[in-house]
Write a structure and sequence with these properties.
Radius of gyration: 27 Å
Helix content: 25-40%
CATH topology of the largest domain: Catalase HpII,  Chain A, domain 1
Shape: elongated
CATH class of the largest domain: Mainly Beta
Distance between the termini: 98 Å
CATH superfamily of the largest domain: Catalase core domain
CATH architecture of the largest domain: Beta Barrel
Largest sheet: 10 strands, mixed
Number of helices: 9
Length: 475
């Protein structure tokens, strides 16, 4: 009877609960301060998580997809409680801090109070999800749950409080988890529903803990996320290996016929890379810094068709990223829309034109695309001679843009092409973003994984062909 009543409550709560959560999220999401933790530190933390015994445990080594380390932190001022008193008060009634429209903690094993090791809860979520957890650690100032079989995630989550000086407290929620099943991974990584609901839940939880403490928040809730890709047994999956091999062999064969299978001729320019950041923090120097860098840019036609015909236009960038090491980015003419940005688009002008990365990158738990938009003036036809003449007369400016896969584009800087142009027919410049990645950005998706080995195969064949060619005798 009790189970049936719970199901009715959950089904009645589902539509208004999600609606209320969505409304709250739209109002408050901009106030959440998002950050990224250090990749190496995150991976080390995940490695240190002990193997948990007991039945039905679903730890971080199980599940599917990448492992995420997430941290939600709020500083509290004016509270009369000690860290231990705050954790005790929270453990006595988790629902006092939880946004009950999307998550209700129901204790299913253990005494009603206080919270202790081996206690079990079911977190009731909207829709078909129940999330069972078990207390695996309990100290004076913290407690930790491990997920059980049937949970959306596989991993652990810890709640802790500490002194922060000047009588302030810091309350932190930290988790190490991956998706428990393929559907959960889809909702988190591709659709984003689970990610935003989770972020709403725990930021709201931190806000309510500040209220429970009798104090007030000293600043917004800070969130940090890092993603760690565990090794796949046996290396890449068989399908990925087959796709990679097919692309590498095809382009290597093409390189034997033509030194550069794609973008055979182009012009190289010195450039200024002026960065000013965006309205959000990405944890990526290219997107967050305010600086000016020296760059080199190559513009080219992909197939090498006559100038009068439309062609895929390419823009390759290389710059020195402090403190050392080069970074490279390849762009090509694409559309701007959520669908068009994933499709190549032939063009007849270097400017105005839109050059997109086509393939996504990953910054923490967010997938994003980069782009450069050449402005409407001056209009430059897609001919190398016309391009050289235009840049000789005046620097060619392009707006640098970033967007999530389906979000709006936002400007983060400007790229200025400076004359004079340099040809590279005798010794074509080679760009390889897989060997010179952008700091803080990781390639995302199968085709990004294919690109690195394909470039390596082409450049190996091209280098061997050039070494075999007889040198021309000097005049």
């Amino acid at each position: 009877m009790r189970v049936r009543w719970r199901r009715r409550v959950r089904s009645a709560r589902w539509p208004p609960g999600v609606g209320l959560a969505a409304w709250r999220w739209l109002r408050h999401s901009r106030r959440v301060s998002r950050r990224r933790t250090d990749t190496a530190a995150a991976a080390a933390d995940i490695d240190r998580i002990p193997h948990r015994g007991g039945d039905r445990v679903q730890d971080v080594r199980q599940g599917v997809g990448p492992v995420y380390q997430r941290r939600y932190r709020v500083r509290i001022t004016g509270s009369p409680l000690t860290p231990a008193e705050l954790i005790t008060r929270l453990g006595d009634d988790l629902n006092a801090a939880s946004p009950v429209e999307v998550a209700v903690f129901d204790k299913t094993s253990g005494a009603s109070r206080p919270l202790a090791r081996e206690d079990e809860y079911v977190v009731h979520m909207p829709g078909p999800w129940n999330c069972p957890v078990r207390v695996v650690e309990r100290t004076a100032e913290s407690f930790r749950f491990v997920t059980l079989r049937g949970h959306l995630e596989a991993g652990e989550i810890e709640f802790r409080a500490a002194e922060a000086g000047n009588g302030d407290l810091v309350f932190t929620i930290e988790s190490w988890a991956r998706s428990g099943e393929r559907l959960a991974q889809l909702l988190y990584e591709k659709v984003g529903i689970a990610k935003e609901m989770q972020l709403h839940m725990w930021t709201h939880f931190c806000t309510r803990v500040a209220d429970l403490s009798g104090g007030r928040m000293a600043g917004p809730v800070e969130t940090q996320t890092e993603r760690a890709d565990g090794p796949v047994p046996g290396g890449k999956r068989p399908v990925a290996r087959a796709v990679t091999a097919a692309f590498a062999r095809t382009f290597a064969l093409a390189a034997r016929l033509r030194d550069r299978p794609l973008h055979p001729r182009g012009l190289v320019f010195d450039a200024a890379l002026v960065l000013h950041g965006t309205s959000r923090y990405w944890g990526v120097p290219l997107l967050d810094d305010h600086t000016e860098l020296v760059a080199e840019v190559r513009l080219s036609r992909a197939v090498g068709l006559p100038p009068a015909l439309p062609d895929i236009l390419g823009l390759a960038m290389r710059w020195r990223q402090p403190p050392d090491g080069d970074a490279e980015l390849l762009l090509a003419t694409t559309g701007r829309t959520p669908l068009g940005r994933h499709l190549l688009r032939p063009a007849t002008r270097w400017s105005p034109a839109f050059y997109g990365s086509l393939l996504p990158y990953r910054a923490g738990d967010r997938r994003l695309l980069l782009a450069a938009a050449a402005r409407r003036n001056p209009a430059v036809p897609a001919d190398l001679t016309a391009l050289a003449r235009a840049v000789d007369e005046w620097p060619l400016p392009l707006d640098l843009l970033v967007a999530t896969e389906f979000g709006a584009w936002e400007r983060f800087g400007e790229l200025r092409l400076l004359g004079p142009a340099r040809g590279d027919d005798s010794e074509p410049g080679r760009f390889d973003p897989a060997r010179n990645p952008i700091r803080g950005l990781a390639p995302a998706g199968w085709f990004q994984q294919v690109r690195g080995p394909t470039y390596a195969a082409v450049q190996q064949v091209s280098g061997a062909e050039r070494r075999r060619r007889p040198r021309k005798a000097p005049p």
